[in-house]
Amino acid sequence: MHRMTRRAAITALAFTSASLALPSSAQLPDLSGKAGGLLGGMLPNLATTGAGNAAGMLSYCVKNKLVNAASATSVLGKLTGKQGVKESSGYSLGQKGVLQTQDNRLSVANLKGKVKSKLCGMVLSHAASLL
User: Fold this and answer.
1) In terms of residue numbers, what domain contains 74?
2) What pTM value is reported for the model?
């Protein structure tokens, strides 16, 4: 039961953070230390995250040791081998730790450790589904 409650809190924090629609990564707020006010939402819907942003985010996650490098590197290599992925604006954003969905942007750098790792695991799963 404790595990479900903890997972629900992580889920709520990450999604609420993702629901902030902002025009650029330079204007993303610092959400660190504000977990109490963000627990009402859900995780972002990665289905609208493009291959470029997923690849860029995966690169960020590997670089910052937020995901299993062996698994992620294989997926990353295949995804970045697809035409146009590395050239996309989403890829550049992802490399900076900015997750971009259809309607929102989320700066992963401002999240706490376990939330970052959880989100990076989700990005890895989504990226693998795009292969």
Assistant:
1) 2-21+46-129
2) 0.68
